[in-house]
Amino acid sequence: MMKKYLVILSLIVMALIVCAGCTQNTAPAPSSTTPVATPSAIATATPAAMTPPSVAGKYTDLTPAQAKDLIAAEKELVIVDVSPYYANGHIPGAISIPLGMLDGKISTLDKTKPYLVYCAVDAPSIAGAQKLVDAGFSRVYRLSGNYAAWVNAGYPVSR
Predict the structure, then answer these.
(1) What is the pLDDT along the chain (159 residues), one digit of tens a residue?
(2) In the 8-state DSSP scheme, what is residue 146?
(3) Which of 45, 59, 110, 153 is 20 to 30 A away from residue 66, measured at CA?
(4) What does the alpha-carbon distance between residue 52 and residue 155 come to, in Å, rounded to a whole number?
(5) What is the rounded CA–CA span in Å between residue 79 and residue 37?
(6) Which of 103, 102, 115, 112 minimizes the C-alpha distance to 141?
(7) pTM over 0.85
(8) Strand ordering across the sheet containing 95-96
């Protein structure tokens, strides 16, 4: 009986640790107001035309297929992994800036380049994309479904 309680307690502690890995201190912007690019718009657009709508405070959610097309089309794209799990696997070419460190790194980033933000879960990627938009970045994208969606689509990963 004691072993059963230890196993349950261990599982709870592990779940808390995993959840704490992608936490944030501020509430994310509601994702329902975020525009979503259509697959045909991404597939037929030139990199310059892949700019999010000129509505202040917005970023663009992309499906994994749209993100893959953007990565192929936009050579200046900066891919930002805001999760603490970068070493476990990430999108090729991504840089690691955990969400808790993003505020301190924003001033070192080039606002003229486009950015694709993702994490292991939604809340940090939403917060990370919104932080970039709030700091004046105009071409900000977020991978809808995050890293798991990328992997589930069968796209390459780096370790």
Answers:
(1) 666 655 565 556 454 444 445 444 433 444 433 444 444 444 444 443 444 443 456 999 999 999 999 999 999 999 999 999 999 999 999 999 999 999 999 999 999 999 999 999 999 999 999 999 999 999 999 999 999 999 999 999 999
(2) H
(3) 110
(4) 24
(5) 18
(6) 115
(7) no
(8) 60-62, 140-143, 115-118, 78-81, 95-96
Q: Are 141 and 114 in contact (CB under 8 A)?
A: yes
**Do 158 and 91 touch, CB atoms closer than 8 A?**
yes
Integer Cα distance of 92 and 109 in angstroms: 19
Angular region, 21: left φ>0, alpha ψ -120 to 50, beta rest:
alpha
Q: Which residues pair with 51 in a beta bridge?
A: none
Q: What are the phi and psi torsion angles at 36 (to 5°)? A: -120, 125
Question: What are the residues whose beta carbons fall under 8 Å from the beta carbon of 87, sequence distance 6 or more?
Answer: 96, 159
AA letter at 89: G
